[in-house]
Amino acid sequence: MGQPVFLGHGVGLRRDHFERVLSGPARVDWFEAISENFMVDGGRPLDVLTRVRERYPVVLHGVSLSIGSTDPLDEAYLDRLLALAKRFEPAWVSDHLCWTRVGGRQAHDLLPLPYTEQALLHVVERVLRVQERLGRAIALENVSSYVAYSQSAMPEWEFLAEVARRSGCGILLDVNNVYVSAKNHRFDPRAYLEGVPRDKVWQFHLAGHSNKGAFLLDTHDHPVIDDVWDLYRDAVRRFGPVSTLIEWDDRIPEFERLEQESGRARAIQEEALQQEPVKTARGAV
Amino acid sequence: MNAGGPFDLRRTQELFWTLITAPEGVRAAIDGLSGRGSIDEASINALFAGDERLPAVERLDIYANMYFYRLLDCLAEDFPKVRAAVGPERFHNLVTDYVLRHPSEHPSLRFLGRRLPEFIRDHQQVAADFPFLADLARLEWARADVFDAPDAAPLSREALASLPQERAGESRFTLIPAFALLRFDHDVIRFWRALDDAGSVPAAAPDGGPAAAPPRGSIAPPARRSAAARVWRKDLVVHHASLDDEEMLCLELAQAGEPLGRICQVLAAGRSPAQATGRAGRMIQAWLEDGILAGVVTP
């Protein structure tokens, strides 16, 4: 699958906004639903997603695929994901380039992988199996991380790019995660952008984070900061019109605030696409 | 990295898990592993990269904190009344014990709390201090289960009215999937309401010890007495209500697939035929209005 359709500017579908989203027009183009929240038998979540899907494009975004885990793939989970994808016909299905489970126990967190050839082979093989199982290519997102592995033999962007090249999966490029990890591990976020293949990015994520002094924490409980907007502008220049989504998961504001944030992304994208050329890498943030 | 080396991907992930889930923190977990000769500090530093700004152990601690607080937040959301009843500090300690014993094994956090009611029941200290807590947890968990149970169209009044009168006694009800019956040893339904009325202000610790939050309006713990409730979903909203012994028995019979005639026998005890018919009519009427009947089948 090449680059999928450009959906425009969306926001994550969260419970706090269910009523508002269903009660009238929203100034966003699409919604992203957390897959696991809808892997249930019935009731309100599925009812809401059904009605949202009638009016908007939807992407299914998972947090528990655990593509990098050394546990076997969770077949029951894949059954649920496949059923959800059949029912809601998402524009695409995404998850994270990380691991979340070992020994059958779930961390419910996006844990980093060592960027080694062994891990690369392992992840690529699993992505291929998942894609075959789902009958579609998936997109994988770069995560925010706080610890790295001494054995990593390549930078994260190279690992991500190689996974995409070898497996045919797409990339969900989380611009805020690039920024957070760049600060935490002292790399140049623009080198990251330049290391990602232009034709593999299906979607951008934007979110707010928290500055904890010695590190940045990916909390999704703030507006996007100016430095991340700047990085987004550069990402748009490099990757072109890519579907963009605002995530806000804690201390969730009124829906109108998300609409504003999404509108800002739209304005930056429109402005950036009128400018040439693509910026070159700057110094470290 | 060497696939067969000391830190292949599997071993790395197992070690990562051990360190971030240790209740005493990453530093103590490393000391424990070193003491047992499982791993030494040099190996940890060779595996995880840190710097002078943030050493590797502190970096792993970020994950350890997020691990625990994510699970705590999830259970606080699924068991708000349990938390209100014991106060935030006791709840924190309860969750610490619980996730050690029952780490999440499901891809969705939705199911993290499924063993909490029985864990509370078997937890010596908590069960002694709060004898009613397991019942309260069962009620909260039943509500969570009913919330996203399978959908079913409720039985209509017309469908019920079309039953052939002469064979009504042989008819069997089916109940909607989003329905549960619960028996309790404590009157937690009344307690629930009291917590709601008080805005879920935590009660004081029963042993007179330090309460987790100031008891701005202590609520008496529920009395020990048999109680029953039904939990159901109507129009996507979850409800629960107390049941008297008679209605509980009738619903248990209906749930077990017993015919209407058997339910009427229960209601006939100590009543005139007219009274029994009236009682059955009112009861079934309430079930219809609440949408808990899914169908009726006459053989």
What are the key terms here?
heterodimer; A: 285 residues; alpha/beta; TIM Barrel; eight-stranded parallel beta barrel; two-stranded antiparallel ribbon; 13 strands; globular; B: 299 residues; alpha+beta; three-stranded antiparallel beta sheet; elongated
Description of the molecule:
- The complex is a heterodimer of chains A (285) and B (299).
- Chain A has 285 residues and is an alpha/beta fold.
- Chain A has one domain: Divalent-metal-dependent TIM barrel enzymes (TIM Barrel, Alpha-Beta Barrel), CATH 3.20.20.
- In chain A, 39% of the residues lie in helices and 18% in strands.
- Chain A contains nine helices and 13 strands.
- An eight-stranded parallel barrel of chain A has the order 1-2-3-4-7-9-10-13, surrounded by five helices. A two-stranded antiparallel ribbon of chain A has the order 5-6.
- In chain A, β2, α2 and β3 form a beta-alpha-beta unit.
- In chain A, α4 crosses α5, α5 packs parallel to α7 and α7 packs parallel to α8.
- The C terminus of chain A is likely disordered.
- With 299 residues, chain B is an alpha+beta fold.
- Chain B folds into two domains: 136 residues, no CATH class; 83 residues, no CATH class.
- Chain B is 52% helix and 12% strand.
- Chain B contains 14 helices and six strands.
- Chain B has a three-stranded antiparallel β-sheet, with helices on both faces.
- Chain B is elongated.
- The termini of chain B are far apart.
- The N terminus of chain B is likely disordered.
- Chains A and B meet through α2, β5, β6, α4 and β8 of A and α1, α3, β1 and α4 of B.
- β8 of chain A pairs antiparallel with β1 of chain B.
